[in-house]
Design brief:
Order of helices and strands: EEEEEEEEHEE
Strand content: 25-35%
Number of helices: 1
CATH architecture: Beta Barrel
Helix content: under 10%
Shape: globular
Oligomer: single chain
Structural class: mainly beta
Number of strands: 10
CATH superfamily: Sortase
Largest sheet: 8 strands, mixed, barrel
Strand order of the largest sheet: 1-2-3-4-9-10-8-7
Length: 207
């Protein structure tokens, strides 16, 4: 089955839409599809701008530069991910490189930090090809710019249809330091160029 490099799937408007080739991680309302716009996919979640955890002015942790997941042999530098003009998360440039949402929470700070990466590409597996095989208790290590490392323990691995993406669970504010890791999953539809699901890892800071 032909597969493409695809990433996260989250949308913000009920009847909202996903921009790009399967990259609907958004933090602001996106316009409806129309002439001259990218193909879009309905999501069914209401606006979540007020649900997204924001960076505090004095974040105690440095920016993350690398993620390691020993159980699945992942070690990748972290690219800073930003939003495009439609409020959609721009994916990492390469399938083998993960990224973190730099406009959100830093790993180790209170709230949900978000890391995302490709499942695969036209030439082979992506950085998170085996993400769905993680089990509770597996460790995720994030190295920071100041050379410190914060360690998270996987608590849960979920698979959600993209139309039912749990936006509040992934991006909603939390008093604890948490980590979300997202990639695509499920069946690949050659006709639409989309995977049907998202695989989401929920992890908490190891004390």
């Amino acid at each position: 089955m032909r597969r493409r490099a695809l990433l996260v799937a989250v949308l913000l408007t009920a009847g909202g839409s996903a921009a790009g080739p399967d990259l609907p991680a958004v933090l602001a309302a996106t316009p409806q599809a129309g002439p001259g716009t990218p193909e879009r996919q309905a999501a069914g979640w209401g606006p979540v701008e007020n649900q997204v955890a924001r960076v505090t002015p004095q974040a105690p942790h440095a920016e993350p530069v690398e993620v390691s997941i020993p159980a699945i042999g992942v070690r990748s530098r972290l690219e800073r991910l930003t939003l495009d003009a439609h409020g959609v998360l721009v994916p990492p440039k390469k399938a083998e490189v993960a990224g973190w949402y730099a406009g959100g929470v830093r790993p180790g700070d209170a709230g949900p930090a978000v890391i995302a990466g490709h499942l695969d590409s036209t030439t082979g597996p992506g950085v998170f090809a085996e993400l769905g095989t993680l089990k509770p208790g597996h460790r995720v290590l994030v190295r920071l710019e100041d050379r410190k490392t914060v360690t998270f323990r996987v608590g849960e691995v979920r698979t959600h249809a993209k139309k039912d993406f749990p936006t509040r669970d992934v991006y909603g504010a939390s008093p604890a330091a948490e980590l979300r890791i997202i990639t695509c999953g499920g069946a690949f539809d050659d006709a639409t160029g989309h995977y049907a699901d998202n695989v989401i890892v929920f992890a908490t800071l190891e004390r």
